[in-house]
Amino acid sequence: MEGLFTLPRKASTSDPLRIAVLISGGGSGLASILAYELLEPRFFHTVLVLADSHEAGGLGHARKAGIDSIGIPLPRIANKKEQRLKHEDLVHEQLKKYNTELIALAGYMRIFTPVFVEKWKGRLINIHPSLLPKYPGAHAHRDALADGAVISGCTVHFVDEGVDTGRIITQSEVPVLTGDNIGDLQNRVKAAEHALYPRTIDAIAKNPGLFIDRQDG
Ligand code: GAR
Q1: Contact 112, 166 (CB under 8 A)
Q2: CB–CB of 20/92 below 8 Å?
Q3: 105: CA distance to ligand 1 center in Å?
Q4: 36-73: buried (b, 16+ CB within 10 Å) or exposed (e) per residue?
Q5: Which residue, 54, 190, 191, 196, has fewest beta-carbon neighbours within 10 Å?
Q6: What percent of the chain has pLDDT over 90?
C-alpha cells in the first residue's frame, strides 16, 4: 500500500522546520546547508546529521557546527533484507527522537525500502547530480559523459519508492565542457548543488505547498 504524501508544516524563522541531513561521504552539500543557515535567520534548522558509517568525512562538518551527529553502520545481521530493515529502523528511531520534520538526503548512498519511504513520504527529499529524469542512479556523471550530454546539472526531488523517480522540486543546469572528465563535471555540478539545495530547503520550509500544487493537479 502506498503511504500518504504528507508535506511538512509551514515554518517561520522564529519557529524553523527541524531538518535532519543524511550523508555518506565528504558532506560538501551538508557544509553548504550549514553555512547558509549561519548567514541569516532561515525557515529551517539542521538539528541532526546522520551518516551510514562512523567514518563519513561529513560528520566533521556537523561536529564543527555544534550539531548532533550520529553514524549508524549496518547492523551485523546475515540476512540482507532483515539487515536493511533493521538499519532503517535505527535511522527512523533517531529521526523521531530529534522530532525531525524534514529529511534532506545529501549524498546518502543508500536506497530506502518502501517501508521507510512510506513513513516519510512528502518529508523526504534528495539532491541528485543530474537533470532528472536523465541519468538516475549512482553514476550520473559517467552516464552523462557517455551520452554526450552538453548540459547537465542537479535536481532536488521528493523521494518515492523508485530510484530517483520522485516528483521534481527544483533543478539547476550547468554546461558540460569539451574534455570534461567525471571529476570536472562533478565539481561543476556540486557548485550548482551548493547554491540550489539550501535555498530549496528554505523555500519548502517557508511554503511547502508551493512545489506540489502545480504537479499534483
Ligand atoms: C553530491 O553530488 C550528490 O548529489 C550526490 O553525491 C554527492 C555528495 O557529495 N548524490 C548522489 O549521487 C545520490 N544518488 P558530498 O558528500 O560532497 O555532499
Answers
A1: no
A2: no
A3: 9
A4: bbeeeebbbbbbbbbbbeeebebbebbeebebebbebe
A5: 54
A6: 94
User: For residue range 54-108, what is the model confidence (pLDDT) as tens digits?
Assistant: 999 999 999 999 999 999 999 999 999 999 999 999 999 999 999 999 999 999 9
Distance 187 CA to ligand 1 centre (A): 11
* Amino acid at the residue 164: D
The residue annotated as part of the active site, out of 87, 128, 141, 194, is: 128
The answer to the question of residue 213 being in a domain is: no
The total of other beta-carbon atoms located within 10 Å of residue 28's CB is: 18
Amino acid 56 reads: A
Residue whose C-alpha cell reads 568525512 in the numeric block: 57
Identify residue 28 by its one-letter amino acid code.
S
And the C-alpha cell for 26? Answer: 565528504
Q: For the domain that residue 155 is a member of, what is the CATH number?
A: 3.40.50.170
128 is catalytic: yes
By alpha-carbon position, which residue is closest to atom 8 of ligand 1? 107
